[in-house]
Predict the 3D structure of the following.
Amino acid sequence: MELLEGEKEVIISQVSEILGKHKHNCENLVPMLQEVQNQLGYVPELAMEMIADSLEVPAVAVYSIVTFYNQLRLNPPGDHQIRVCMGTACHMIGGQIILNSFERRLQIEEGETTEDRKFSLERVACVGCCAIAPVVVIDDLVDGKVTPTRVDGILLSFENSNNNEGKKEQEQKPVERGEGQE
Amino acid sequence: MGEKKNHAEKQYQEIKTKAEVKKPLTQDKTVVMVGTATCGKAAGAIDVRETFKEEINKRKLNAEVVEVGCIGHCYAEPLVVISKPGFPSLCYGNVDEGLSSRLVEDYLVGDDPCYEYALVALEPNEEFPTFTDFPRGMFEQKVILEQCGLIDPEQIDHYIAVDGYHALAKALDMEPKEVIEMIKESRLRGRGGAGFPTGKKWDFCCMNVQDPVRYVICNADEGDPGAFMDRSILESNPHQVIEGLIICGYAVGASQGFIYVRSEYPQAVRRIYTALEQAREKGLLGEGILNTDFSFDIEVFQGSGAFVCGEETALIHSMEGKTGMPRHRPPFPAEVGFRGKPTVINNVKTLSYIPHILNKGVEWFQSIGTPDSPGTAVFALVGKIENTGLVEVPMGTTLRTLVYDVGGGIRNEKEFKAVQIGGPSGGCLPESALDIPIDFDSLQEAGAIMGSGGLVVLDEDDCMVEIARFFLDFTQKESCGKCTFCRLGTRHMLDILMRITTGQGEKKDIEILGDLAVDIKNGSLCGLGKTAPNPVLTTLRYFMDEYEEHIQGKRCPSLMCPELINFYIVPKKCSKLCSACVGSCPVEAIYTREDGLKAIDLEKCVKCNSCPLACPPEYDAIIKVSPPERVEELEKENA
């Protein structure tokens, strides 16, 4: 993927900072990648190369880790990440129908981002809220008992709130990763 | 050794005296406890909490709003417990902002506890029934869930005030060997799924005396779809797990522990970090714990979403920065584990039992459950059941009790069809298997496994072929790709199941499925592959007739598989005066006929199931039919 102007500098500065925080050994590889994704929303090629250099391993070794783990993504997500739960309870009660509804409304397939970069759509194995299935996680907010008509409502609420950027849920602070102890 | 005795105990009592001041449920102050675990939050607990805070501040009441974890009654989220001096502590379900303001007005200011909204009382009283007065409470026995939802997980003092970390003090006043002996004697079995004796595992780890470096890891990589016990415990009472892990570390002689937790559980991760920090401040973690010479610390490692990493060797690989692929065992991690050192890996629930066994003794533990599987079992009860939630019952309880008494039976008076137990590695058990007692060995005989405790109840509307396809789809995606049979075999099985659920199944498919299942079981290295065919094998064993209907009749008897059904509006039942279905359709497939009744354009229909739900019950005009061609016949009949 082609990087836009200025993106390269951001990646270099962010990744350098993350590299500075960790000891350069393989055990810290996954925590570093998670932190990169936390900061940038995805793991760019450049970041993988930089991390590979610092660990003195071939870049393909880092690439294999990124593609192995579901959490790590190779493409930038949309402004709002929609994740539809595909756990057992959600599936049996219509999770696939909800996913289809989002696909239809956003005109993208699961795993893609809309052209205006506003929404990206993913499936998630289980968020552990099976009692209120089917569940959708939008950014960090868990929403339960979703129906196809609610899907329209959810997307509409974003269109409306776009003008007045008032986020009602301030609860979710980003998790400090890898800083548990020294 | 004599001098060492009671050293930790003394230090502990000092900490406890200080903590007791902050006890959550005291009789001299009103406390409002709002359950804000992930599930509570999703149901709107944050708004409820804010309303309580606002209303209480506005009226300048002497009341405290505390955030707690999950009490297990997920069907009634958001849940609030109010404890007011002079009244029994009452738990309210389905609380919204309106009810919150009313409770403040009527109960906190006035003295009317609004019994009509109360779910249950926490302690015996004259006014309102308690948990033990309901069938669920009669069969439940809470050990590791006892404090969940009743203490603030972000305040260590709450945990200490209910005797938390006392077991750690007791353990530190014992010899490590004595601790292992005690766990061995208790016959505690690992709750991760396989049921390996915990004490034995700890003992193995100590075999290698030459190497002093050992590690202990708490496995909180709960990847089973449909299970959330570990998340709930970590969010509701993280200190219990941490205490268990420290004791484990002391017993096997480790000085470093890890908690391997899924990053999909951000709130659990946050609460673990907070809890660890607080434990360090209190001197319960770090250098010289409780003034003894035992030093131990815990780091958090966040898993990045690979189901196979729940397998212990894969988990170790992923912690070492490799792809999470399992390796051959032996050597077991207890001999060669993380960084090549002896490592004990225990599940969240297993570790949660440790403090209780040390506190209450081996005999107490064995008095619960069955001789071979002592203790309790924690289940995430979900699916088509009345009272979904987290339950804890003694081992040996039958599935029937769990579904009908504890879970309250099937939702909407539907017919019970099966329970899916053990997640993607488990199986579907029919009505006839409901009297099986729940323990590690009986379930295995029936073709399922205990697993980590997900229990999904299925009713007459659920297609068993489809559920087998769903789990195969999951294991196929999560297969790490190391063993050929697992990688290609699951793919092949999935293809066959896809064909069957879309009406293209052939007679020979059933035989091929059976053969593949055996080959995958034999040809795979780890638990994921060895158990992957279980959902297919159990559905073939108990629900063969459904497979045959799909293959021969090209129809789905449960009316679930989208390719094999169509929706139809029965003209005789439909009303000209109503257009509820039109509005519910997301793709505008429903139109008004010339005679004013509604009909579905099957070309446009996406089979989203919205219209039957929207159709008012007095008409109940929209039906599903299978095979799909049945619509044409019906149209002719009703023309």
